[in-house]
Design a protein that fits this description.
There is one protein chain. This protein is of the alpha/beta class. The protein is built from twelve helices and ten strands. A hairpin with a 5-residue loop joins strand 1 and strand 2. The strands form two sheets. The chain has an eight-stranded parallel sheet, covered by helices on one side. The radius of gyration is 18 Å and the shape is globular. The C terminus is likely disordered. Helix 1 runs parallel beside helix 2, helix 2 runs parallel beside helix 3 and helix 3 packs across helix 4. The protein binds adenosine-2'-5'-diphosphate (A2P). The site of adenosine-2'-5'-diphosphate has 18 residues, from helix 9.
């Protein structure tokens, strides 16, 4: 069986998602537009943005121009965005979605995530997200950065089980408890920062594995994600890297090498995540930084 960027995983509501996509975190509108166009050029079919990133407009423009350039249509690709921390709450979320769709130049997203479990609001946010789903503005719905306690609370109130939980996931932070709990409920884990924001790319042990397969560390780590059944969205704004990160389908890591990556786990979340207040404060800054 051969795999490529079209290889999909079926989510708990029957929607299918490409297992490998392109992230645009930390990119402004211009960079995000270019990255999306380059992604389309190199065969990516899944794109992940968020209102917090302040680049939905750039992603929308990149999709419109990029799809035309490669002769594909909106239905050929899978688009994710997220409900911003500052927009959480029932009515606020319902009020936010149309502006997001307008910036993305589409009538629907394929996946809508609650970006953070903002304290005191995320259950109401989820109720609104369920309505957005029922209205056809999102083909699947899920969450991001939900630990087990908050996920359990959400499940206690939800009428629709999230399809996805997008978490920081890379060899140094493998979120074993969260992965196990999510799997029990049929919730797929999607990896943000699969390359550890670049942190794993200089590891000498990984370099040895990469040399063995004549691949880069980034390719080894992404292949490990792929073989583990994790949905992954490496971010790059550089064509060579966008292309390189997609070139992971012509080799297979041995069981022993897979194990070596699993054994690197330190459950070490990035600092900013640990510092995050869960109240949504820091979320507001990112949008202001890039403008919208
Ligand atoms: P850039 O966008 O300048 O290419 P993550 O997805 O884990 O957050 O990691 C993304 C970071 O790693 C970004 O800083 C990105 O930089 C960089 N990056 C992405 N792909 C590669 C690659 N193949 N080789 C080296 N660095 C990469």
């Amino acid at each position: 069986m051969s795999f490529d960027l079209s290889t999909r995983i079926t989510l708990n509501n029957g929607t299918s998602i490409p297992q490998m996509g392109l992230g645009v975190w930390k990119s402004n509108n211009t960079q995000a537009k270019e990255a999306v166009m380059l992604g389309l050029k190199h065969g990516y079919e899944m794109f992940d943005t968020a209102k917090q990133y302040g680049n939905e407009r750039g992603v929308g423009e990149g999709l419109v121009e990029g799809l035309k350039a490669v002769g594909k249509t909106r239905e050929d690709i899978f688009l994710t965005t997220k409900i911003f921390g500052g927009d959480q709450g029932y009515q606020e979320t319902l009020d936010a979605i149309d502006g997001q769709l307008e910036r993305l130049q589409t009538d629907y997203v394929d996946l809508l995530l609650v970006h953070w479990p903002v304290t005191g609001k995320y259950v109401d946010t989820w109720r609104a997200v369920e309505e957005i789903y029922k209205a056809g503005k999102a083909r699947a719905i899920g969450v991001s950065n939900f630990d087990n306690e908050r996920m359990q609370n959400l499940l206690d109130h939800a009428t629709i089980i999230p399809a996805v939980n997008q978490m920081e996931y890379n060899p140094l932070i493998q979120e074993r408890d969260i992965l196990a709990f999510n799997q029990q409920h049929g919730i797929h884990l999607q990896a943000w920062s699969p390359l550890g924001g670049g942190a794993v790319l200089t590891d000498p042990e990984l370099q040895k594995i990469a040399d063995k397969y004549n691949k880069t560390i980034a390719q080894v780590v992404l292949r490990w994600n792929f073989q583990s059944g994790i949905i992954t969205i490496p971010k790059s704004v550089h064509e060579e890297r966008i292309q390189q990160n997609a070139d992971i389908f012509d080799f297979e890591l041995s069981a022993q090498d897979m194990q070596k990556l699993y054994s690197m786990n330190q459950e070490k979340r990035s600092l900013w995540y640990n510092d995050f207040s869960w109240e949504g404060g820091s979320i507001n800054e990112a949008v202001e930084e890039w403008g919208d």
